């Protein structure tokens, strides 16, 4: 069942993770990015 759900879901790629990291490290010194929650938009849980 889980594999069927995962197979139907668009997954994140390395480029997606890299973009999130670049966003976090690109913030000004006075901004603090404490967490990044990254998941596919198709994931509901």
Brief descriptors of the model:
45 residues, mainly alpha, single chain
Question: Please, could you describe this protein's structure?
Answer:
The mean pLDDT is 87. With 45 residues, the protein is mainly alpha-helical. It is built from 2 helices and no strands. It has one domain. The chain is 42% helix and 0% strand. The chain has helices spanning 2-8, 14-25.
Summarize, please.
It comes from Actinophytocola algeriensis. This is NADP-dependent 3-hydroxy acid dehydrogenase YdfG. It contains two helices and no strands.
Largest sheet: none
End-to-end distance = 15 Å
Q: Give the number of domains.
A: 1
Contiguous uncertain segments of 5+ residues: none
Order of helices and strands: HH
Helical proportion?
A: 40-55%
Question: Structural class per helix/strand content?
Answer: mainly alpha
Q: What's the gyration radius in Å? A: 14 Å
What's the β-strand tally? Answer: 0
Give the count of helical stretches. Answer: 2
* Anisotropy-based shape: elongated
Compute the average pLDDT. Answer: 87
Protein name: NADP-dependent 3-hydroxy acid dehydrogenase YdfG
Task: Please outline the helices and strands.
Layout: H1 2-8, H2 14-25
């Amino acid at each position: 069942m889980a594999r069927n759900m995962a197979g139907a879901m668009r997954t994140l790629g390395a480029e997606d993770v890299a973009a999130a990291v670049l966003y976090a490290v690109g913030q000004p010194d006075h901004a603090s990015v404490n967490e990044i929650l990254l998941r596919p938009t198709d994931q509901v849980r």
